[in-house]
Each structure stands twice: as structure tokens, then as C-alpha cells.
Fold Transposase.
Amino acid sequence: MSVPLEYFRSETSQRLRAEGRAEGRAEGVVQVLELRGVVVSDDVRERVLGCVDERRLEEWMAKAVVVAVAEEIFEG
């Protein structure tokens, strides 16, 4: 039995996978901050979790491991 794979190559499927990756990265940024004991305000949480730009989320993750205040991930 063969399964058609067109859907998995479709633009919709690619978009959904990208959204899922971004969502996971955003959750990771928040989690790293919290695990480090950095207070994450509702505003920061909302901004991070609302971001779908994977490159920006990667930048924020790199900053999340060193900042003292959550809002500093947005600087620069």
C-alpha cells in the first residue's frame, strides 16, 4: 500500500512544521530563563511566545543563557 506524500511536501505542510519549530524554540527561550532563575514577566512571555521568526528566536535563546534580566534578550 503506497501513501501519497504530496501533502508532506506542500506549502501548507512546510508552514505548519515551521510554526511548530518556532513554537518549540519560543517555549525553550522562556524555559531557559526560568530555569536560570530569571523572572519572566507576562509581557516578555507574550512577546517570546508570539514570535514566529526562527532566527530571532535563536538570537534570543543565545541571550537567554547569559542575561540577568529577561528584557535584555530584546536588546541589541
